[in-house]
Specification:
The protein is mainly α and 301 residues long. It contains 13 helices and no strands. The protein has one domain. Helix 2 crosses helix 12 and helix 4 runs antiparallel to helix 8. The radius of gyration is 19 Å and the shape is globular. Its main location: membrane. Pfam families: EamA.
Length: 301
Amino acid sequence: MREQSKAVAAADSPWLTLGAPVLFLLLWSAGFPVAKIGLRYASPLTFLAIRFALTVGVLGIVFAIRRPPLPRSARAWSSLIVIGFLVQVMYFGLSYLAMTAGIATSVLALIVSLQPILVGVLAPRLIGERVGARRWTGLLLGLLGAAGVIVARGRIQVESAGPVLMAIGALIGITAALLYEKRHGTVQDPVTANLVQYSVGFVFCAPMAALFEHAHVEWNVTFASTLAYLVIGNSLIAITLLLAMTRAGRVSQVASLFLFVPPGAALMSYVFLGEVLPSLAWWSMALAMLGVGIAARAPRG
């Protein structure tokens, strides 16, 4: 009962309602072009293994200083391990492999943005969460706007089915992670939760990198900068915000935020990679934002 009261209070927090979604979207959207830059200097699984190792190292130091509590049950441990595999190995691993295999960053972002539609279909059956007509309208408007950004950029060029299948696998991973977190997740200290989950990512990715890659890494300032951003911005801050918002609110409402990722990634690609956005892309971006707003503010049913 006490945990339920805490969850209700968290859901009403202005920070989780306004600040956390904005910060999460900025960090998550920038992750696509930043990762693309980093993949110029390292093979994908090796890149991820280094990223996870650095993240675990930082979290290990914080853990030793703060000494937060460990999970108290086998169910809590298994929940962290499953979510770590779904997010770190399936979502990030398959996304990096897809980018290396030739899929455009914007196409990958668009495929992953289908997540709210999957959540809307599966949430009533798996976690008993009702998704009303107003939220469906917002989700579809957001998806239409996101697709418009990609079409306006003229970047939908996929050479083979392999990268697309990898992107779909990444989509399945992040969707399953949100649904599993909502149904089976337990409240844990963020340091403990992230330390376990990134350890899972490292344990899976490091051996695969050793077995299937030549461990190509070109160390330079640019590569080090991308690693620093991905470790701190994506690995430590963004994932913590995502899981916190998922526990505090409706999973379909949180998932609707991902519809802003394609236009957000397009904007970040303009900033970091100099890719020009046509005027149609800006209008489509506005439509995506409108859809996100409708879906996120839909009344509880």
